[in-house]
Design a protein that fits this description.
The chain is α+β, with helices and mostly antiparallel strands. The chain has helices at residues 12-21, 73-113, and strands at 29-31, 42-47, 50-55, 68-70. Helix content is 43%, strand content 15%.
């Protein structure tokens, strides 16, 4: 990050290096055209001179509501990295929710086990 704000991504290699450095490569993603079999992935590809990003579902189908287009590569890369970071934030949030639910269930179960008359 610079004093002016986040550093802009300018190359595919730089973006992949940032994804790997931040540990975001634990999430499925594809940069390029080879996304046909990529399930639950974030995809960035170029077609007809336009950069496009989208998410695929568990069947590797395009989630239509996720389609974004960009004229400039740097805009596409910046947004792709932002979306990868959002995916990580969502994953962290879901992990905290699962842990809280697990603890709540254990507390509830313990309170049931401590009831008088429990055989």
């Amino acid at each position: 990050m610079t004093a002016e704000g986040p550093q802009r991504m300018t190359t595919l290699q730089e973006t992949v290096a940032t994804i790997e450095a931040e540990g975001l490569d634990r999430f499925a993603y594809v940069i390029g055209d080879d996304h046909a079999g990529s399930a639950d992935a974030l995809v960035l590809t170029r077609r007809d001179g336009v950069w496009t990003s989208f998410s695929t579902n568990e069947r590797a189908g395009v989630e239509e509501t996720s389609v974004r287009t960009y004229e400039e590569l740097s805009d596409a890369l910046d947004d792709f990295l932002r979306l990868m970071r959002l995916r990580a934030d969502e994953d962290a949030l879901m992990s905290r929710i699962r842990e809280k639910n697990r603890l709540a269930h254990e507390t509830w179960q313990a309170s049931r086990d401590d009831r008088p008359g429990k055989a």
